[in-house]
Automatic annotation (TrEMBL):
Belongs to the protein kinase superfamily. Ser/Thr protein kinase family. The lineage of its organism: Eukaryota, Viridiplantae, Streptophyta, Embryophyta, Tracheophyta. Its main location: membrane. It comes from Tagetes erecta (African marigold). This is Receptor-like serine/threonine-protein kinase. Keywords: ATP-binding, Disulfide bond, Glycoprotein, Kinase, Membrane, Nucleotide-binding, Serine/threonine-protein kinase, Signal, Transferase, Transmembrane, Transmembrane helix.
Length: 814
């Protein structure tokens, strides 16, 4: 008897879960959830960590462990599963316990009673109350983004509304088990006319200052791991009479990308990105980073430098107080002016470069003042102690004037700013003459060294000249390659002298190293071994060919190097390496690539090929398309690499002939293996093999089956004829695949590996067939190689004849 009710209950639950909206007649009970339209966020009841308390919250979906983005009743937990969210027609969300007592309310109200009100969980993770058909921010009656907990999500505004007085800031959780307000907050500087900076505050003490805002980001936030090139964070700073806030906007749409920023319960601000492959959060930047991030740690006029010991010193023109002075004054300040100011006309400013600008609480900002006017304004006011232009985007316009002590200054190794500090005339004179003295000493030393160097140089010149002539001859042959020539020393530095630790692997033509250029860019260096088969011709070919090509599915060549005997290609670094390192690996690595990723990889490779064959400035046949030559970036997007064997065709040229058959067995089409004929259809054949390998997770060459001797192509054809194509699928993705996409991929692959060139589809057709759902032509028996016997050492494979007899299919075929 109970069964129908239980079934009905689960049906209700499932229907409910797919909704992102509830109206005034619907309640949400513990156990029920609503899901944002894009499937990224879910709202419902949860218990954090080991706690038994129940809370209403919003969490990220598809993460390996539950990650909360917002909690409603963080201070008033429910002690059992009886919680219900009600929603009244005045726009109020109410959380009610088993006694009917309201334990949390959104405290919002619509201007009039309205039955068309809805509560909706938006794609951004924002829970909003609004009239049913309203979409804009201003129309929301209430939104959870105005009441954040410890998490900042892109699109949220942190700051203050001067009209309502509401301040929006983050507050840490007490602990992982307890979302109630912890000790730490992240707040914007709150005085209306102050320049923008952020503080991490413990109770009411500033722990760390992040900023000031430099027009692009908050200085003092460490360089985070770069977001993928197609995504950019833009900080939007809004300051007007009514409000002052900042928000971040993600530009460039990668639907899988998720980011969050939290204040942890131990007072750190942490930015993390979700890694789609393992659904785990990767921390990309954390503040505070080091000792110098402790707010004001070196006292007023002190300067912290993490690169020297001790970290704390005084700004130039200031000196350490004696211990007597410090104890007499009974404060922690340790720096004082070496020479007191008298506001005389000779007083001026000393420029400190690469600094974190002092706390702007003591500063006044003028948006339109030039740096020269800024200096004059500071000079004309005896209590002005320093000035700077905080905004690096305005070309020198914008002026901050500090009055009183300069606090929380540090030296940055990179990305610091210029600060001009007022000093007494005699101090400036002393500083500048000591700088001049130093300059003179440096000049004398430099001159003597130069003389010695010139002599040495002359001796070396002849030797270098000889070497240079040799390498420039090679460089000239590169013609008009559109990528820079990079010096060997730079590459050596980037790869730690080609250390074994940096080695990524060994390609056909030599080792590949990971490197990091001086600016921080990660690279992969393909170093052609002297003994390799890739001579100067193939090298030139690869540079000239790929330098002219730019597409998101082709690996990007950043530069090349020819010096002496060394020949190197410098590529963008692909953090997930090659496709074969996933496809043909052990179960756990294989299963990282689920079906939807595999299908996207198939489509990405097809688009890359379309560009090579048709859309680029050249018509290029790759000739060595295989899983090992598909590299995967941070987001598992495929990029075709290794253009050493590629050939450029003239626009009206369709086919070429070679006596030297190159490529990789298992991927070579019959007309090329036997007659040396190649065309874009050779790449189509290799693509077909590759697709079957991606679907099946097995190599074509070396494929064994207990029932027959066919290779993967033969096996796929057998299954196709028996209407069992789905049996081809890699075991470890059985849980994730879409049958229609798998069947379509196999069908298209079989068309690509046809024996006769004219039976294979052209590249635009391949791309179109993969992206549509319409009927497909029927494949004939593919060109598959008879299984090679163990002792067959022939490098040119034997072909089975293709018999054009069966027109039988699973996907509709014409
Ligand atoms: O499969 P893998 O780990 O990925 O091993 C090979 C190895 O170098 C020899 O080709 C890796 N490799 C090649 N080019 C790149 C690149 N641009 N970024 C990262 N790894 C690369 C490849």
């Amino acid at each position: 008897m109970l069964l129908p009710y239980i079934t009905f209950f689960f049906l209700m639950l499932r229907t409910f879960r797919s909704l992102d909206t509830v109206n005034v007649h619907q309640n949400i009970s513990d156990g029920e959830t609503i899901v944002s339209g894009n499937g990224k966020f879910e709202l419902g009841f949860f218990s954090p960590g080991s706690s038994k308390n129940r809370y209403l919250g919003i969490w990220f979906m598809n993460t390996s462990s539950q990650t909360l983005a917002w909690v409603a009743n963080r201070e008033t937990p429910l002690i059992d599963n009886s919680g219900v969210v009600k929603f009244d027609n005045q726009g109020k969300l109410l959380l009610v316990n088993s006694n009917g007592k309201v334990i949390w309310s959104s405290n919002s109200s619509a201007s009039s009673t309205n039955t068309n009100l809805v509560a909706q969980l938006l794609d951004t993770g924002n829970l909003v109350v609004k009239k049913e058909n309203k979409t804009s921010d201003e129309d929301f009656i209430w939104q959870s983004f105005d009441y954040p907990g410890d998490t900042y999500l892109p699109g949220m505004k942190l700051g203050k509304n001067f009209i309502t007085g509401r301040e929006t800031y983050l507050t840490s959780w007490r602990s992982a088990d307890d979302p109630s307000s912890g000790e730490y907050t992240l707040r914007f500087s709150m005085v209306n006319d102050k320049y923008q900076q952020l503080y991490i505050i413990k109770s009411s003490t500033i722990e760390t200052r992040i900023g000031p805002y430099n027009g692009i980001s908050f200085s003092g936030r460490p360089q985070s791991t770069p977001v993928p090139a197609i995504l950019t964070y833009v900080i939007d700073m809004v300051v007007n009479q009514n409000e002052m806030y900042f928000t971040t906007v993600l530009i460039g749409k990668d639907p899988t990308f998720m980011s969050r920023t939290i204040v942890t319960s131990n007072g750190k601000l942490e930015v993390s990105h979700l890694i789609p492959q393992n659904r785990e959060w990767m921390s990309v930047s954390t503040v505070p980073v080091d000792y110098c991030d402790n707010y004001g740690v070196c006292g007023p006029y002190g300067s912290c430098n993490i690169a020297i010991s001790p970290y704390c010193g005084c700004l130039k023109g200031f000196e350490q107080k004696t211990s007597n002075e410090t104890s007499l004054e009974n404060n922690t300040s340790v720096c004082r002016r070496s020479i007191a100011l008298d506001c005389g006309p000779e007083e001026g400013f000393h420029k400190y470069s690469s600094m974190k600008l002092p706390d702007t609480e003591n500063a006044v900002y003028s948006r339109n003042m030039s740096l020269r006017d800024c200096e004059l304004a500071c000079k004309n006011n005896c209590s002005c102690t320093a000035y700077a232009n905080p905004n690096i985007t305005t070309g020198g316009v914008g002026c901050l004037l500090w009055y009183g002590e300069l606090i929380d200054v540090r030296v940055y190794p990179i990305n610091g700013q210029d600060l001009y500090v007022r000093l007494a005339a005699s101090e400036l004179l002393e500083l500048h003459s000591s700088i001049n003295r130093k300059k003179r000493v440096v000049m004398v030393v430099t001159l003597s060294i130069s003389v010695v160097l010139v002599l040495l140089g002359l001796i070396l010149a002849l030797h270098i000249r000889r070497k240079w002539k040799k390498s420039s001859r090679s460089s000239k042959q590169m013609g008009s390659a559109e990528v820079p020539l990079i010096g060997l020393s730079k590459i050596s530095r980037a790869t730690n002298d080609f250390s074994v630790d940096n080695k990524l692997g060994e390609g056909g033509f030599g080792p590949v190293y990971k490197g990091v250029l001086d600016g921080g860019q990660e690279i992969a260096v393909k170093r052609l071994s002297k003994s390799s088969g890739q001579g100067l011709d193939e090298f030139k070919n690869e540079v000239i060919c790929i330098a002219k090509l730019q597409h998101r599915n082709l690996v990007k060549l950043l530069g090349y190097c020819i010096q002496g005997d060394e020949k190197m290609l410098i590529y963008e670094y692909m953090s997930n390496k090659s496709l074969d390192s996933f496809l043909f690996a052990d179960e756990s690595r294989k299963s990282i690539l689920d079906w939807s990723q595999r299908f996207q990889i198939i489509q990405g490779i097809a688009r890359g090929l379309l560009y090579l064959h048709q859309d680029s400035r050249l018509k290029v046949v790759h000739r060595d398309l295989k899983a090992g030559n598909i590299l995967l970036d941070h987001f598992m997007r495929p990029k075709i690499s290794d253009f050493g064997l590629a050939r450029m065709f003239k626009e009206d040229e369709n086919e070429a002939n070679t006596k030297r058959v190159v490529g990789t067995l298992g991927y070579i089409p019959p007309e090329y293996a036997v007659n040396g004929l190649y065309s874009v259809k050779s790449d189509i054949f290799s693509f077909g093999v590759l697709v079957l390998e991606i679907v099946g997770g097995k190599k074509n060459r070396g494929f064994v089956h207990e029932d027959h001797d066919d290779n993967l192509l033969g096996h796929a054809w057998r299954l196709y004829k028996e209407n069992k194509s789905l049996d081809l699928i890699d075991e470890c993705i059985r849980a994730s695949y879409s049958p229609s996409e798998v069947l379509r991929s196999i069908h298209v692959a079989l068309l690509c590996v046809q024996q006769r060139v004219e039976d294979r589809p052209d590249t635009p057709t391949v791309v179109a067939m993969l992206g549509s759902e319409g009927p497909l032509p029927c494949p004939k028996k593919p060109a598959f190689f008879i299984h090679e016997s163990e002792n067959n050492s022939s490098s040119i494979p034997l072909l089975s004849s293709s018999v054009n007899e069966i027109t039988f299919s699973q996907v509709d075929c014409r």
